[in-house]
Predict the structure.
Amino acid sequence: MNKSEMIQKSYELAREQYAGIGVNTDAVLQILDKVAISLHCWQTDDVSGFENPDAGLSGGIQATGNYPGKARTIEEARADLEKVYSLLPGKHRLSLHAIYGDFRQGKADRDKIEPKHFESWVNWAKIIGIGLDFNCTLFSHPKADSGYTLSDLNPGIRNFWVEHVRRCRDISAYMGRALRTRCVHNIWIPDGSKDLTVNRFKHRAYLKESLDKILEKSQDPALMADAVEAKLFGIGIEAYTVGSHEFYLGYAVAKKIMLCLDIGHFHPTEQVSDKVSAVFQFIDELLFHVTRPIRWDSDHVVTLNDEVRALFEEIIWADKLDKVNIGLDFFDASINRIGAYIIGTRAAQKAILLALLNPTDKLREYEENGQNFERLALLEEAKAKPFGAVWDYFCLQHDVPVGEAIINEIQQYEKNVLNKR
Ligand code: RNT
Ligand code: ZN
């Protein structure tokens, strides 16, 4: 039997086993096929961007490590991303940050960026057939040096950043129109303070006022959608974060926009998964930043861990898979960056698959009948079903490397491309 025949055969056996607990694996794979993950462009080059790559990353986030082969130009980033997409089952998206604009025809400060700075990305996205999402960039810039941007006490600084984000929403709508797929625009700001802050109320009032100005212009919901991302703290911003969870939860509900929940942005013992069914009572659609915090918002490569699994279980048990936008957010500079994308994206896909493979109908039935032993027993047994056979078959169907075969693929790319940089 050759490798593909083995994968096929294992899948057939797995299909039988899942059918035994009431799960139709063919139907599950069809659903998984439609889940597009928005890959974050910033893993290509440790969040440097092309506006001023030597400026250094600021805003309380950090990429550690100096593994060789980082993308230094737009071409290199695109080549890397093309490689990444070629190794992933399914069709995915790209999430761009404003600092990744194409400034080869001339630089523009953040309050001057325009759709034309993203035209080459749009053309490239058309050619490779992906949708784009977008993020304003309010860090790594001298006008963020006070530690505050949209909530700065100086109106000149606030206005500069209001203008930036306004333009980013226009750019998002341009992307959505050009690519005929809605662009999600996410706002995350680094505002906060290292130590005890007396003007907490004042900064938050300014943030609200600035956001109100930014959102004044209504955009076509078919072209772009707004999201706001909260955070607990950052490096050097330990005592006070202006855009906290309560702030943005309240703001998103009040404005009927999306909330972005980043798994790394909460207390380490807090479960983001449990927020899904709560927040969806008040907000129609959510954005997630799937990442892996270790002790802090360290943005390690996503792995198939309990929290990521629980997150997708909650999304699927809430019946909201079509109401979530899944973005990745990690930047590990200590390992092969292309490999990091593959591990992280595939881990997120595996978590979605596992959640879809749960015998949810039966579990609900047990639960509703008060059969709690049976519920727990089935949950435990479901964990031992041959999910790997289903995953491998999905990869085979999509003609991408199966299992550990990705290691060799990445090694080849490293040898032929990355090591020559
Ligand atoms: C920072 C946020 C934010 C950034 C990106 C680069 O803590 O998670 O999403 O990681 O904008
Ligand atoms: Zn994030």
In short: Residues 36-356 form a domain with the TIM Barrel fold (CATH 3.20.20.150). The first strand starts at residue 37 and ends at 40. The first helix runs from residue 3 to 20. The chain has two domains: 1-23+359-421, 36-356.
